[in-house]
Structure formats: structure tokens, C-alpha cells
Amino acid sequence: MVTKQYPLGNEGLRPALPKDTAWLPTVTDGVVNFEIQVNSMVPKYKIAGLAGIATGIGLIGEFLFFSISGYSPDKFKTYAESLAFLQQHGVLALRIAVLFGIAGAAVRIIYVAGLAARLRAKSPTQAVATLYFGILGSIGHGLVALSFYTGLPLLLKFA
Fold it and tell me: What is the pLDDT of residues 108-151, one digit of tens each?
């Protein structure tokens, strides 16, 4: 909160504020104190930090289960190779890896929003770029994971 003081009768001198703020007047010893209350959607830094930790855990889980499954892009070059791999190894470990990826992408949005809020005071342009690219990256990662989650069983089903 920010406090500004104005003598009684001069309340009209206060500047206009954006829509997401409010003036909270209090009178003390003949002086009107206006506290500016900002109502914005800024995440708490502790929650954003925990979301960052959860994002890291999601990435570790995704990497771990992709490694356990034996997946590599070389094994999915052609339809026949990928079908043989999936029939031999199954899709359970890959689907668990993908679930970690989807969860990590969802939680990452909270982390990126907190990071952008933290950067906003010192570097507003960097904060906006962090927010936009972070959200776009999370959406892209989530869509790739979703396509794996739904596509691998369909590949086996239609074989």
C-alpha cells in the first residue's frame, strides 16, 4: 500500500488512478491520508516458487519415464518401426511420462506468472516477454504431450 497525505478540503487534488486501484481515505489530525490499494492478479511469490519446484519435478518425472520406456526419435522414424517398438515395450511408461509433461506444463504457467510479476518493477518489457513466451511454451509443451497421450494408443489400435 502507498500512503499519500492531503489537507482537509483538498481531496480533489489527488490524481486519477487506473481501474484496478482504489483510494482508502482516513482522517488523522486534520489530514486526510489516502492509501492506494492495488487489486491486481499478481500471484504470491511463495506459491509461484512452489510452482517452479513442481515444474522441475514434472520435468524430472517426464525425463525419467521417457528414459525407462526406451523411447528415442530413431525408433519412431517410420510407422513400422514405431509400431514394433510400441508392441514390444507397451505404452504405459510413455503415457506416465506424458502425464508428467502435461502436469508440468500446467503448473509452469503459475511459475511464469510469478516470475513475470517479480520482473515487472525493474524491467516491464522483459516481464511481458517472459510471461508471453512462457505461456506459449507451456501451451506448446502441453499440446505435444497431449498428442502423445492420445496418439500412441490410437497407433496401436489402428495397426
Answer: 999 999 999 888 888 889 999 999 999 999 999 999 999 988 88
Q: Is 76 exposed, middle or buried (0-12, 13-18, 19+ CB in 10 A)?
A: middle
Residue-wise pLDDT for 19-31, tens only, equals: 555 556 677 776 7
Name the residue with cell 492478479: 41
Residue 87: CB partners within 8 Å, gap ≥ 6? 156, 159
pTM summary value: 0.68
pLDDT at position 59 over 60:
yes
